[in-house]
Design a protein that fits this description.
The structure is a single chain. The protein is α+β, with helices and mostly antiparallel strands and about 375 residues long. The chain is about 25% helix and about 30% strand. It is built from 10 helices and 16 strands. The strands form 3 sheets. Strands 2, 3, 4, 5, 6, 8, 9 and 10 form an 8-stranded antiparallel sheet that branches. A hairpin with a 2-residue loop joins β15 and β16. α6 packs antiparallel against α7.
Length: about 375
């Protein structure tokens, strides 16, 4: 399936005359500025949300993103990683003041030595200042999720736009949209971990005639996640120069990570995910996988190793619509979500992930099989 051209010009009849004049001003080649990020200029004119989560309340108002006192702190985890892990599995850390960016392989997150409730407002303001609006703001759960937004930095900077400026700007649109989820988790030593996960959509043609398009998922962009973490460091008090130095050091660091083996298995007739690593790392990786693959996490209880999630069965309606068509549908035909519990159970240096129903009983349905497969594929 071929993707439509990256830059599209919206069809506005009233502006066709202006567009014709503008096109006559230039025969130059379009250039792109892929290295830049600009979600601000989209503002209120950004495309309507592709996703409207079902109107469901939280399972609980308890603050369950606390880590119990018995859980190993970030500093201890780092020390253990250095002594107990092979060199290719160690963690890279770059710190300035009370803010550091931590890495395990391709996964990055911020560790800030401040309480989560002191970080909520500045982090929330950071995303608003960068042109985003939120579809989820749950302070108790520690989750912020943005609406789908367009990176206007990918628009062409040709003579047409330079000549007519904002008069023509609204005629341009990219064929990509981005959504970000920010998750806060408290550590036992009072620090807070901040995770940023990216999800992308792209508009593609549905046939060879290229007369119809649909939106479909595109690959996660880890560099975009890391760039927002770097910019967030600046918001939290790190200078631009220091943040740039940290990013440069992190990029050039000779640290690699051979991902822990993650494989599907069946135990007592129940589909499970087996991970060759202890609970702390498995809990973090599963949480990031749920964020990245679009599950709605309604609650979490680390002391019990449970994520409470909503899942949409792609075959619930028995029609020809695809999985993502249903998830991103606004109409009443959208499939109703089902509540599940994702259980992460550690046993030494191994962990097992399984799916429970809403009542906490082992789930063996086709949905459980799909959920385990989704998480497994993301962790590979």
């Amino acid at each position: 399936m071929n993707a439509p051209r990256t830059i599209r010009v919206k069809q506005h009849t009233a502006r066709l005359g202006l567009l014709s004049i503008a096109l006559g001003l230039s025969a130059c080649t379009t250039t792109f500025q892929d290295a830049k990020i600009d979600y601000k200029s989209a503002g209120k004119s950004q495309a309507p949300s592709l996703e409207v989560p079902p109107d469901l309340t939280q399972l609980s108002q308890d603050s369950r993103y606390n880590v119990p006192g018995g859980v190993v702190s970030a500093a201890a985890m780092q020390a253990n990683a250095k002594t107990a892990q092979p060199a290719d599995r160690q963690t890279a850390v770059n710190a300035i003041g009370d803010v550091r960016i931590q890495r395990e392989g391709s996964q990055h997150w911020l560790v800030v030595k401040r309480p989560a409730d002191k970080l909520w407002e500045p982090v929330r303001d950071f995303w608003l200042e960068n042109g985003f609006i939120f579809t989820i703001e749950d302070r108790q759960l520690g989750i912020l999720e943005t609406d789908w937004a367009e990176n206007r930095a990918k628009l062409p900077q040709d003579i047409i736009r330079k000549t007519l400026g904002k008069m023509l700007d609204s005629l341009y649109s990219t064929s990509e949209r981005d959504k970000f989820r920010v998750r806060f988790e408290r550590e036992a030593d009072g620090a807070t971990n901040i995770y940023v996960t990216h999800r992308g959509m792209e508009e593609v043609y549905t046939n060879t005639n290229k007369d119809n398009t649909i939106w479909q998922p595109r690959a996660r962009d880890p560099e975009l996640e890391t760039e927002f973490l770097r910019r967030m460091m600046v918001k939290l008090g790190v200078s631009e120069e220091q943040a740039a130095a940290v990013a440069k050091a992190d990029k050039s660091a000779a640290v690699t990570s051979s991902a822990a083996v993650a494989r599907m298995d069946t135990v007592n007739g129940q589909p499970v995910l087996q991970i060759e690593e202890g609970f702390d790392r498995a809990w973090r990786r599963v949480g990031v996988a749920l964020d990245r693959t679009g599950f709605t996490v309604e609650d979490r209880d680390r002391s019990r190793g449970i994520y409470f999630v909503r899942y949409v069965d792609p075959n619930a309606k028995g029609d020809s619509k695809g999985f993502f068509s249903k998830i991103f549908s606004r109409g009443p035909e959208a499939a109703a979500p089902v509540k599940y519990q994702i259980l992460v159970k550690g046993d030494g240096n191994k962990s097992q992930v399984s799916v429970l129903n809403e009542q906490g009983q082992p789930e063996t349905s086709a949905n459980a099989q799909r959920i385990v497969r989704i998480i497994t594929d993301d962790l590979k």
